[in-house]
């Protein structure tokens, strides 16, 4: 990454944030404040979409300029536009450095048809350097797109604690971190360009949350990689204090080129200013020319500390291992990140990451700066 280009990106990001205002997802770090799931602040109980009136208030309260907030009510038509700008430099000792600059423009909308029915959609335009998932023996490639429909759902909520949704979306995830690069997402078919068609149910109580689902291809897969399957997510507040969540995920899918079975466990723990997010998944994969099935394990752990309500520092560790005849695959990674929510509309994050291939010994390092901006109506 050239010094001039990186400096220009940082200056541009700060300038835009000051005069415009970044999209911070509600984040699973909210567990430290007693928010057991996404339903309190988001219109959709799975999270990741527009905020409701309460969520918008929390969004402002957690920014550096929290005093700006003026109460609003939910309307029939809610939307936001988000711009995410990232500049990242990656290098390894035996390879030339790689620099990429990726802008993404995202539009999200929720429209209420009636008290029980609503529709939601998220579309993204992506420019310059795109990041497809490469093809491996045990996992198919996913082609990038300059225009992508992340979400297109119709929702039916017969009661406050029960909701059904049908359409296109990412599969439910245990810790639901907004970063899509971790192995538990990118290697378990939950990356940025994975948005299968699905029917899912959300059923929650004071101490529990269950989300069974069935899914089918999203339309951007190769013919042999069009997967059909079913699964469920279930979690429980262990101590009943809204800060000790433990859960499990299960999923089984089948495609023309093979099948996969996944079983995972996760936890979200909050302790005032800091907390822990952790997930471990085990997946059995049979695919293509593999004479025997293979087992992959993906582990994610994050310790975060809210220095201030608007400033969060995180230390992240990851491990991915694939055991298959003739082609073992073993990666470990670590990341340090600081994210600052300057206003309810603007966030900037700076991070450094290393990844080591245990089999080959190759060490890859990366430094990234990301600025995010959003408008809400």
Could you describe the 3D structure shown?
The protein has 377 residues and is mainly β. The protein has a domain at 3-107 and 220-376: Beta Barrel (Porin), CATH 2.40.160. The protein contains three helices and 16 strands. Strand 9 (244-255) and strand 10 (258-271) form a beta hairpin. The longest helix is centred in the N-terminal third of the chain and has 17 residues, at 3-19. The two termini are 37 Å apart.
CATH topology of the domain at 3-107 and 220-376: Porin
Order of helices and strands: HHEEEEEHEEEEEEEEEEE
Rounded to an integer, what's the Rg over CA atoms? 20 Å
The low-confidence runs, each spanning 5 or more residues with pLDDT under 50, are 1-26
Number of helices: 3
Number of strands: 16
The first-level CATH class of the domain at 3-107 and 220-376 is given as Mainly Beta
- Assigned CATH architecture of the domain at 3-107 and 220-376: Beta Barrel
- Choose one word for the global shape: globular
Strand content: over 45%
N-to-C span: 37 Å
Which whole number gives the mean pLDDT? 82
Strand order of the largest sheet: 1-2-3-4-5-6-7-8-9-10-11-12-13-14-15-16
